[in-house]
From TrEMBL:
It comes from the Eukaryota. Gene3D superfamilies: 2.30.42.10. InterPro entries: PDZ_6, PDZ_sf. This is PDZ domain-containing protein. Residues 98-137 form the PDZ domain.
Amino acid sequence: VNFMGPTTYERHHYLFTGCEPSIGGMVIDFDGHVLGMANFPGTAYIPSSIVLKCLDMWKKFQCIPRLHIGMKLSPIKFLDPIHVERIFRKCNIDSGLIVKEVSHGSIAEELGVRPGDVVDSVNGECVATTVELENLIMRICENHLDQGGAIGSCMDILGWYLAHAERSQRSKAHFKSEIKCIR
């Protein structure tokens, strides 16, 4: 059992359980609630909502369907306050996900997404954390397969609202991505 104190961005304390190096064990808060599964020794964990959704999809489809969006994202709330203020003044956005990297050859690159752009909603739902985005994308994949779509088929994700911080403008992006299967 490892104890993890609060990080710079959080004020919560966690207990990590499991074998060395604590990957795959439970993450428990001091009220005894299971928060998720340890993913990286001492710091990162997969939230229980995502673990449970993956198990459910594994039972239904014998795999975990995934979309490749081609972006590495980070919550705005984890940026330094000066950067958050600058984004708010230019784009009138104070929550969302800032694009850190764009994968070469991805649909995001083709659409002109650049590091520094902000994703604040997808399919009409606001996203402020990577966990919210992950849950939303998993739900979109599951609904697509439940409605008869197949692994390997392409699907549209409408309503990606991007704020271009350096260009002081907002736009709506239309992503089309192939559902891949993680086994």
